[in-house]
Amino acid sequence: MKRIKSITVLQHFLLIMMSIIAIFPLYWMIISSFKNESEIFTSSFIPQAPTWQNYLYAFAEMPIIQMLFNSFVVATLMTILQLATSLLAGYALVRWNFKGKLLIFTLLSLTWLIPFQAVMIPNYVLINQIGLNENPLGIVLPFAASTFAILSIYQSFKSFPTALIDAARLDGESDLGILFRIILPNIRSTVVSLGIILFINAWNEYLWPMLVTKEMENAPIQIGLKSFVNSDVNMWGSLMAATTISCIPILLIYLFLQKHIVDSFVRFGIK
Amino acid sequence: MGSIKVEQIKKSFGQKEILKGIDVDIPDGSFAILLGPSGCGKSTLLRMIAGLEEPTSGSIFINDQDITYSEPKDRDIGMVFQNYALYPHMTVFKNIEYGLKIKKIDKSKRLNMVNKVIEMVELTEHANKRPGELSGGQRQRVALARAIVKRPHAFLMDEPLSNLDAKLRNQMRQELIELQKELQTTFLYVTHDQIEAMSMGSYIIIMNNGHIMQKGTPKEIYTNPANLFVAQFIGSPPTNILSYGDYSIGIRPENMSMKEDGHNVNADYILTGAVVSTEHLGGESIYCLTTDWGKVFVKGESTWQTPNKESQIAFSKKDVLVFDKKGERVRDVDLIENLLAEMQVSNHRREAVVL
Amino acid sequence: MSEVKRIIVSEQEKKVTEQKSRRAARSLIKWKPYLFLLPAILLLGVWMYKPLLSTFVLAFQKWSMVPGTEPITVGLDNFIRLFQTKDFIHSIENTIFYTIGILPFSIIIPMLLAVATNGLNGRVKNVYRAMFFIPMILAPVTVGAIWRWLFHPANGLVNLTLQKLGITDGNISFFTDPVYAKWLILFMTGWGLIGFSTIIFSAALTNINRDYFEAAALDGATKWKQLLTITIPLLSPTILFMLTMSILFSSQFTFAYIDILTAGGPFGSSTNIYYEMYKYGFNNLNAGLSSAAATLFFIVFAIIAIGLNLLTKKFAFYDN
Lengths: 271, 355, 320
Prior knowledge:
The complex is a heterotrimer. By secondary structure, chain A is mainly α. Chain A folds into two domains: 1-51, no CATH class; 62-268, MetI-like fold. Chain A has helices at 2-34, 53-61, 64-95, 101-110, 120-129, 136-140, 147-158, 162-170, 175-186, 188-204, 207-212, 221-230, 236-268. In chain A, helix 3 (64-95) packs across helix 7, helix 3 (64-95) packs across helix 10 (188-204) and helix 8 (162-170) packs across helix 9. The longest helix of chain A has 33 residues, at 2-34. Chain B is of the alpha+beta class. Helix content of chain B is 29%, strand content 32%. Chain B has a six-stranded mixed sheet, sandwiched between helices. Chain B has a five-stranded antiparallel sheet with strand order 13-17-14-15-16, with no helix packed on it. Chain B starts with a strand and ends in a 5-residue tail after the last helix. Chain C is an all-alpha fold. Chain C has two domains: 2-58; 76-315, MetI-like fold, CATH 1.10.3720.10. Chain C is built from 13 helices and two strands; from the N terminus they run H-E-E-H-H-H-H-H-H-H-H-H-H-H-H. The mean pLDDT of chain C is 84. Chains in contact: A-B, A-C, B-C.
């Protein structure tokens, strides 16, 4: 009995240490954003005289609202397109046997191996040629189909009972009908989880948006933040305020759908 | 109004040939059974008749209409799946209604049709439940109702009772037989269970390895098996097979009797063996004996007595089935006579069989 | 009576024409799978495979990406120049450093943590999981900004604390020091991965049948022995999965931190191969050099991936 207890204490100690390590930087970001100019350079763990000053400065320095809006448009669009293309592709892969299926599947899986840095130059040239630079569409288009999403959807479709699809065919349902009225309602939570992961990834994306947008007004929030970090002004309070703002949507989603998100990351792996 | 005809159907998956030229002609209104061991191709054949799979070659007719390549929905068939395949996210009512809705049958008519069928399968009080809340037997009924509501030319059933427990299965068998009589529609029923086939079917098609082994009424199949496979597949315990040279001699356990039973008045042959085990089933018993020809099962009336260790088994000539090297039935009376005479001689030498 | 007959005949005619249109529809059905796959294939073709081929071609050309100019074929020049560039050699060393250095964070520590905390009940476990996960969902820029502030040379919490505790007496410029910079980037990347990996290993561990451990305990196996003979072999699919992920993605994970915190410096001491590609392309406007590096490393990573795939097939034990 005693031994079991000591193991449990050790377990919790380890877990609490890990948790502190995981969330402390986030905590430090938030309290720094509320510290005033004199306090910011001290190591106090709770702001003595909390202030909104840093936030006001951050809003004055960058078009934060516009950038958040850009991020939102880009992330939403990207998520919808990735879900749409992967639902259609996943359906085709489980529903039919056709010539070249293995080849297509292999080609889809192999894109996993192509790092973005290996295709960024030709893509950058192409986006500029078709004039989609400085445009949310230019950010979204190269990511409109995601191998990660396709393979995840394919995995969950594969475990869907084929007899249900057969039954729907006998009922006279069309293929799109089977996909959206029979399969989707039954794997809704999986698709929602995948959608959340895709949204978070899209929100956090920064290399490609940085190449496509030069003007702050057209850029997602990550780009604004990056230039703020690199601007070398000693405005750490404001920087932390801007960083906090950029995290809020993600943290809100996480707060409400935490279990969903963790489960689906465990299921789908990482991108 | 629902005959099913299959002509020279072949099907391959890649290199593997699953069906090797199947011909079937199921008359309208019959309760037909596709029977065979798992992997024999029976489900594939059923799926092709349903339109869920395309044959590699050959044609399929329903009501003399060539429907080989038409869509499942255009075939006027109802299907019941092994795992019921009910839509988990819809209520019982919606499950049954779904096909009609897609057919764009107008609402009042639709409701009427669905309610009538729900009443027929006695699920009225469960109409608003989801499949997950129902028992196995109830789900089975929903699956039936979903097929019935379309008033199809024919019903296709893919091992629909295999997920039920033994008692419920017996009950559902009776219900299906009654349902078929009531609807007067062709049923094509796939199973691997020979007892199910014999008790329900009016026409049985036995398949093995992508070939049809025999077609006929249960009586024909039981009393007059066309080949060794059918003889062994139908009946429990399976037909005893005594090998003799190039031939196999089959006698059903129920056509043999222990000599001391006194039921062997007409016996033409007697075989000596030692009883290894006895299984009392109540009304009857199964005895297992070792003989010079191998292990033999005998099914007879229960005497509730442990038979003598050394026993004699009697059987008559009319019950002897002879098969050639390929497993085909030998019907040449002279050849059978000769064979048995020869066996008798050789047995005499072993002093085991006495005429 | 004749009326009925006529209806039957016209019904039959209708069915015959239906039959014909069905035959026609059948050829359309053959196209359906491709139709459903078209958006995905088209997009991946245009934005992944085509540019990958362009990169292979660009590797043998010289081009500054200036609109109106054309690439000039230069043969193997780019590859030769790559190996004469000091930063490139640095970047290879560092890529190996990051790839190996990440393994304790993605495999060893998480696996031990998962084993140590196995058997914790549902609710408490979920709370910990929720916290472990946070680094994973934060944007690289966010993480970069926070760490830059934590390790600020004059006023960062780390320097303040070190001095307060008397461990150091001067400010340390972590990100401009060739020794600290790459270790810090490694730690940041590890910090982002460690919680996630622990959760993955925990999930894999709860799927292992308890019977194995009980059987082993009855056989008198010690905890340590159980770890070596049961836990690790049964976790082998997860270990190989995380190994593959670490090797293929660690350079991409570190990319963001390198860009935000050190820009590869000082003196190329913290750069990695992907960051060099980015630098050659968008800082030096040398598309050829960048593409040569990309081509080279695409091949290297492809070989590693194939090897790991074979390894997974050969060595992963599955619990049925």
